[in-house]
Amino acid sequence: MRRTWLVIGLLALAAAWLGPLPDLARQAFFGHMLMHMLVVAVAAPFLSLALAGTRYDPVEEAPGFFAPIPASVGELIFVWAWHAPGLHHLARTYTWGLFCEQATFLLAGIWIWLSAFGGSAPRDPGRSAAGVIGLLLTSMHMTLLGALLALAPRSVYGHHEGFGPMSALQDQHLGGAVMILVGGIAYLSGGLVLTVGLLREQWAGEAEPA
Fold first, then answer.
1. Does residue 185 sit in helix, strand or coil?
2. What is the pLDDT of residue 61?
3. Rounded to whole angstroms, how far apart are CA atoms 114 and 94?
4. Of residues 144, 142, 137, the one with CA closest to residue 116
5. How far apart are CA 84 and CA 137, in angstroms?
6. Distance between CA atoms of residues 134 and 40, nearest Å
């Protein structure tokens, strides 16, 4: 399974960075958001699952750094900062700006996902519980940011003139909806997977004869 997860993660990165999306992202906000979601909500979790529990897993070496709740807060800061008008304009205008943005998204995504799912087996229930909280917090802030973009009465990005028949505001609304659907659901699903794992461990422990 690890090889499958690795291949899926690498394919997601290739789709985000080597296909038509980088050019589309320069013209359309929703294209930029598709790139973002492919990186943090598809590539990052699958790459992290491929690394978790292997000799390449850094969680055991730096458990304090790879703590799920601080990682969630760190990702919040990075994601919201890159969606501020100034930095967003930088990423859409300059290749080096887009490179910095996408690298930040990938590293922040791996940080939170590996913090939640990494570590040696058998898993520490405390880390799993913290992972549930961290992923649910991330799902909440992704959903909140997406809702702000999808429901805003005016375009946040004044430098953007729209894409094709869509106005700048319609493009922004579509991008916000992509963040809500893909980002919110991906992180919520990760939290639910960890929750199910914790419940199974608890039931298995209760079922063991005294």
1. helix
2. 87
3. 30
4. 137
5. 20
6. 14
H-run or E-run covering 173: helix 168-178
Q: Where are the alpha helices (DSSP H) in 55-94?
A: 68-82, 85-93
CB 82 within 8 A of CB 91: yes
End-to-end Cα separation, the chain, in angstroms: 35
Q: Cβ contacts of residue 194 below 8 Å, gap of 6+?
A: 116, 117, 128, 129, 131, 132, 135
Dump pLDDT digits (tens) for 173-193.
999 999 999 988 899 999 999
How far apart CA 5 and CA 45 sit, in angstroms, is: 9
pLDDT above 90: residue 165: no
For residue 109, what are its two tokens? 């995504």
Closest to 43 (Cα-Cα) out of 15, 22, 19: 15
| Cα–Cα distance measured from residue 87 to residue 150, given in angstroms and rounded to the nearest whole number | 19
**Predicted pLDDT of residue 180:** 93
- Mutual angle of helices 95-117 and 185-207, in 10-degree steps: 10
Residue 126 has phi, psi (to 5 degrees) of -65, -40
Reading phi first (left if > 0) and then psi (alpha if -120 to 50, else beta), residue 162 is in left
Query: Rounded distance, CA 159 to CA 144, Å?
Result: 23
The answer to whether 130 and 68 have CB atoms below 8 angstroms apart is yes
